[in-house]
Amino acid sequence: MRLLLTGNYAAAYAVRDAQPDVISAYPITPQTPIIEKLAEFIDSGELKAKFVRVESEHSAMAALIGAASVGARTYTATSSQGLLYMYEVVWWAAGARLPIVMGLVTRALGPPWNIWSDHADFYTVRDSGWTMLFASSAQEVYDLTLIAYCVAEHRDILLPALVAWDAFEISHTYEPVELVGDAAQLLPPKGAWTPPLAAEDPASLGNLAYPEEYAETRRIMAEAARKIPLVFAEAAGRFRELTGRDYSRGYECYRCEDAETVFIAMGSIYGEVRLAVDALRARGAPVGALKVWLYRPFPYRGVAEALEDKKTAIVLSRTASLGAMGPLAADVATALALNGHSLKLVEFSAGVGGVDVTMDDVLAMYKAALEKEAGTYFWRGR
Amino acid sequence: MRRGGDVSRSAGVDRILARPTVGAVFSGGWRAERPVVDASRCKLCGVCWLFCPDAAIGITEAGVVIDYNYCKGCGICARECPFKAITMVGER
Amino acid sequence: MAHRVFPREEYLLKGHVACPGCGAAIMLRHVLKALGPNTYLVIPACCTSVIAGPHPRSAFGVPVLHIAFAASAAAASGMVEALDKLGKPANVVVWAGDGGTVDIGLQALSGAAERGHNIIYICYDNEAYMNTGIQKSGSTPYGAWTTTTPSGNPGFKKDLPGIMVSHRVPYVATLSPAYPNDTFARLRKAASMRGGLKYLHALTPCPPGWRYDPSLTVEIARLAVETGMWVLYEVENGVFRLTGPSKALLDKSKRKPVTEYLKLQGRFRHLSSEDVERIQKMVDENWERIAEMLKESSEHSGKQG
């Protein structure tokens, strides 16, 4: 079935199709349509879930930790300040090995107050152990949300997963979205993973642990995280069989094969990047574009392969890079270094705080990148 | 009392769970003095058993038994015993 | 024969890490005996986070979710809804210290109370941040020494049970480790109430924090009640009732003077006689308010009767 949906509604439909047991959320612009839609689904009976309408985002994640610890499938969504208010328990969820799924509508951080698109919030949790997926269209929001449950609840993983998408450009604009007919085919059966806590087999989750024991828990987490790319690829493979849409590599290349310069981006900006690539190709410029879906764990090997014989990588970071290369550029640099490649790496902080980035901006960035040295630059428009 | 099925075990989650354990620590080693029960005065009222913060006092019809592996020597039992049947004696 | 009246089973296992003479440990033993094994504990950062034993050894014979400091009521909210959805009803019980309840945990508790989740929230109140080394909390009483109020607390103890009563939860009660019969009655009543948040607040003396010999814990808990400084009461669906020995203490002559309680504790050693008078006055005024409230409600029900 195809419906005209915003990115936010696409998330709500994916959650409806995943049939969580408990959802919990606190309103924040621009996430609110997600939870409003979910409340409608519960009211209509399409979604049989308990909705814990908490008094803060910190409590939203805490409520899901409580719910997941006894075996519930769960969902929450937030943005920006809400994610940061929730931050402590976002890390707790990963350390507790709970397969919670979260939607993140990426929004700038105050001050000053800003409700528009920016990835600063997204990057704050990149070391937490959460699987992190970035969706660049409403269809991708829907698809990746279902795949997120497959990864999170996999017996080899049991780590939480989030799907992120841009505020307003994606969250509030409509596009046709193809729904999966029977998501139960795709997701693990409910109750397939053994919850940590059950009265019939008492155990304690989160005791004080001395250094040796604590380190061991982190080592085990790292081991599980190492398996995520494979599990993701496998789940994406089954998704492809069902729908024809293929996310399995964790990234997508567009016209990269014979390119000398590759743009790298996540989110709605990627649409403008593709238009720019086509325009540049029409003029004979050897360019391509790479879109990242699986941000954590980062597909170092795949991205390095895609960039192997290239001369320049232009990373579009939708956040200000303060005192360092931005996270996405740093990950690209790591991919290259780990695989013994090198090229000229130029990063533009573009679209910060929701500033519009158009095809013309990207064309200008191409020109600028050829002239500038490697490093990070704040894009102030043409 | 282990459940069947090991779906979560392969992710190592089992190893982040702590299990019910008598003697999480050897708290008997903390004592400076120990309670000694005078059975001739003990009426098996159970007050010592009820108020021991450590559940280190066992009580049967045969009498009161203190588990010195875990008794911390707090002295509440001696203080609360209505029959003054318990005295605190210094550890050697 | 206490062991014939109260359940034998232990769910707080010996060899736990509480200080010798810990009032909270006594309370917890009683609470778990009253509730039984079909009980999930949600424990925020507090003394019990350490009492519970180091991984991989748990001193609890029931399932426990340890959770971040501010989050216990929220975690319990999600847990109880999940258990209900999954068809696995059980007692879901928050066991939190005073800091995690009256200060950092208050927001989540207020939300959980307003939403009416079927949980039992128990605050064990040792009147300071004891786990971190005796710093003042919102529950520290007037005049008490703590490491952050070395000259004595200039402020006054927050009335959490009163705050919970104004949330109109179905049940609020105060507890003491010195009165296990009362404890069992309150817990059993709370556990039998379907729906809504049941709030219980226990005053649990702390030897290192209150500065007294560990053997005196039960005696000090008893004196708190006998002097009227700690009132045992319940508010069931809005109806206030004194419980246990507090029932007899409306008559001031039956209350021991507060000095009997204060003089046993090193944390009050520096109190001036003015301070003590002030404390006595506060206690007496509180009891006058209780008497007024009881008079009003009996007149009110008299009129209706």
UniProtKB/TrEMBL annotation, chain A:
Q: Which residues form the Pyruvate flavodoxin/ferredoxin oxidoreductase pyrimidine binding domain?
A: 14-234
Which Pfam families does this one have?
PFOR_II (PF17147), POR_N (PF01855)
Organism encoding this protein:
Thermofilum pendens
Which processes are annotated in GO (biological process)?
response to oxidative stress
Q: Name one GO molecular function term.
A: 2-oxobutyrate synthase activity
Alphabetically sorted, this entry's keywords are: Oxidoreductase
Specify the protein name.
2-oxoacid oxidoreductase (ferredoxin)
Q: How does it assemble?
A: Heterodimer composed of an alpha and a beta subunit. Heterotetramer of one alpha, one beta, one delta and one gamma chain.
TrEMBL record, chain C:
Q: Which UniProt keywords apply?
A: Oxidoreductase, Pyruvate
Species this protein is from: Thermofilum pendens
Catalysis: reaction(s): a 2-oxocarboxylate + 2 oxidized [2Fe-2S]-[ferredoxin] + CoA = an acyl-CoA + 2 reduced [2Fe-2S]-[ferredoxin] + CO2 + H(+)
Q: Which SUPFAM superfamilies match?
A: Thiamin diphosphate-binding fold (THDP-binding)
What GO molecular function annotation could you give as one example from this UniProt entry?
Answer: 2-oxobutyrate synthase activity
EC code: 1.2.7.11
Show the Pfam families listed in the entry: TPP_enzyme_C
Give the first-level EC class, as a single word: oxidoreductase
**Domain Thiamine pyrophosphate enzyme TPP-binding intervals:** 56-195
Q: What is this protein called?
A: 2-oxoacid oxidoreductase (ferredoxin)
Matching entries from InterPro entries are given as: PorB-like, THDP-binding, TPP_enzyme_TPP-bd
UniProt entry tagged with the keyword Oxidoreductase: yes
Subunit structure comment from the entry: Heterodimer composed of an alpha and a beta subunit.
